C-alpha cells in the first residue's frame, strides 16, 4: 500500500504517490477510462488527487468529481489550483486577483461536487496582482472553510519567502509548492528546496518521469512510439520535445541495468528517485490505463541505497538540468491570457 508524508510544517498527510489528472481526464482518455483509473488508484491505496480548473478547461475537475462520487469525503485529499485562463477566458477569468480566486474556488467546488478542497494552490505567480491581495483572498477562503490548506506551484525561492511571510501575518499556513522535478530536471535543488525546508514548505512534484522519457521507451535514433505522449499535442508533446535528444535518450538507457539491479521497473526507479528527497511530500503520477497505476505505486516506500543513487546521478550527469535560474522562467511576466 502507498505510504503517507506530512505536507509542510502541518499535521496534514498526503499519499506520497498522488494521482494527477493534468493531461488525461477530459482530453486524452474518455470519461469511462478516467473513472476506471481513479478507482484503480483508490484500490492501490492512493487517496490524494490533484487537479486544476484549467485542465481541459474545467472538464478534468468535472471528471474527477464524477469518479469520486460515493467515496467517503473525509478519506480523500482533494487538491486543485487557480491562475490560468478558464471558461471564455475574459479579463477576469485568469490570474490571482481576489475576484478570480473567489470565482475560482466556487467553480471548482461545484465541478468537483465537494464542500471544500484540502489544498488550494496558486498555479503560478501573478506579476500583475499585488501579492497582498492574493494572500488575503486565500486567507478568507481558509476562514470560510472552502479550503483547508494553501499551496502554490512553480514559485521561486524569493516568492515562497514573501508568500510565507504574508501567510503567517494573516494566520494561515503556506504548506506546499508544486514544481517540476525529476532526475533530469533538478532546478529546484539550488534555491527552492533549501528555502522551502527553512520555511516548512513541502514539494508536490510533477513529471517525476520527465514526461515519460525516464520510462526508457523512447530510444535514441528511433522514431517515437505510435500513440505515445510525444505524438499527441493534447498529451503534452510540446513539453517532451526538448528531452527527445539522442544524448538524453542514450543516458536514460544507462538506467536500465540500475533499475534491474534494484528490482524496479524504469518508471518505478524514476518515481522512487524523487521520493528520496526528504523535502518531497508526493510525486504526481497520471495514467491512461489502470495497470499503469498498479506499477507506479510500487515505488512507494522504496529506499534507494547510496550506491544506486550515485549510479543514477552518474548516468544522467551530463544531461540533467540543474540551473536554478530556470525557476525564474516559469511564471508569465504578464497576465497569462492577455
TrEMBL record:
It comes from the Bacteria. Residues 16-315 form the NADP-dependent oxidoreductase domain. The keyword Disulfide bond does not apply. Keywords: NADP, Oxidoreductase. The keyword RNA-binding does not apply. InterPro entries: K_chnl_volt-dep_bsu_KCNAB-rel, NAD(P)_OxRdtase_dom_sf, NADP_OxRdtase_dom. CDD domains: Aldo_ket_red_shaker-like (cd19074). Belongs to the shaker potassium channel beta subunit family. This is Aldo/keto reductase family protein.
